[in-house]
Amino acid sequence: MPALAPEVAAVRLAVRRALTGLPGAGPVLVACSGGADSLALAAAAAFVAPRLGRPIGLVTVDHALQTGSDRRAADVAAWAAGAGFAPAEAVRVDVAGRPGGPEAAAREARYQALAEAARRHGAAALLTGHTRDDQAETVLLALARGAGPRGLAGMPPRRDLTGMPLLRPLLDISREQTRKACAALGLSPWEDPHNADPSYARARVRADALPALVRALGPGVVDSLARSARLAAADAAALDELAAAALPAASSAADGPAGVRAPGGGLAVAALAGLAPAVRTRVLHAWARELGASPAALSHRHVGALDALVTDWHGQGEVHLPGGLRVGRRAGRLTAAGPPG
Ligand SMILES: Nc1ncnc2c1ncn2[C@@H]1O[C@H](COP(=O)(O)OP(=O)(O)OP(=O)(O)O)[C@@H](O)[C@H]1O
């Protein structure tokens, strides 16, 4: 019997770790584009899941943005059916008319379709094939736009996708390993032309920025960026916890000791002023979200303007937040009004 390729073993081990102890009896659903990362993930899941008594399914999304995309989706679904996935489904989505650029619109449509499919099949979790290289690219892109620790934390290995657990078992596996795993298993991955399209920032990072860093600083740079993401994630989680405790305290300080906390009830400036800036800005961000400001539209500029009501008060006017909300400072409190109508 030929020896098991080390890359195949590494991917299987990563998937086994992610699936062990997963609650719920439903299938795990692999989100597979047919690319090397998610194909290696699917092949590993097909091996590991049955051994853990876990059913497996696979969904591939057809964004209908390129000619032949329907054939690619059908090929992936057919391979999956043959490899024992049930369901083995190709889902077509309509990307047109969504907000943001084409990349963001395709991602939103894809995640919506994947979450819907996972719910429809009673899945215990959805699995994606993001690798350590994807993580390093995410961190570089976050650095380039001046993100804080939450952005630099990159992608978590596990998150909630509208009520469905989304797992990323391959965050410690390199893209080279997924390619080698596919080759060792005789699988021919699909090459997504978008991955090489220089009009996408991520494609430029993948093709130019990261290879330039590796040339200048050595091959360890990808692993180092992924490690920085893990460290930033731990710090961001600790700061989020501090902020989660400080928000009700600042809110009840504003309402008086017997006050019942209500998001619109205001925040006490004195309580906010005593917080470390990293905690205070998180409290203000969380409060703005509670008030109804959409997280996607809430920017550093909005939070900075709220912070200035506390730390740089000179009688300035109200701060306008997304969704028609207005926040002002009166009698030692930040209070909110709106949206209009
Ligand atoms: N069309 C699709 N259908 C289903 N899942 C997808 C699709 N596109 C991406 N995914 C999922 O999202 C993950 C990340 O995709 P992305 O395109 O960002 O990275 P990638 O490195 O090109 O991945 P891959 O090599 O697996 O295509 C994939 O590994 C896969 O799990």
UniProtKB/TrEMBL annotation:
Belongs to the tRNA(Ile)-lysidine synthase family. HAMAP family: tRNA_Ile_lys_synt (MF_01161). GO terms for molecular function: ATP binding; tRNA(Ile)-lysidine synthase activity. It is found in: Cytoplasm. GO terms for biological process: tRNA modification. The gene is tilS. The N-terminal region contains the highly conserved SGGXDS motif, predicted to be a P-loop motif involved in ATP binding. Keywords: ATP-binding, Cytoplasm, Ligase, Nucleotide-binding, tRNA processing. PANTHER family: TRNA(ILE)-LYSIDINE SYNTHASE-RELATED (PTHR43033). This is tRNA(Ile)-lysidine synthase. Residues 28-207 form the tRNA(Ile)-lysidine/2-thiocytidine synthase N-terminal domain. GO terms for cellular component: cytoplasm. Ligates lysine onto the cytidine present at position 34 of the AUA codon-specific tRNA(Ile) that contains the anticodon CAU, in an ATP-dependent manner. Cytidine is converted to lysidine, thus changing the amino acid specificity of the tRNA from methionine to isoleucine.
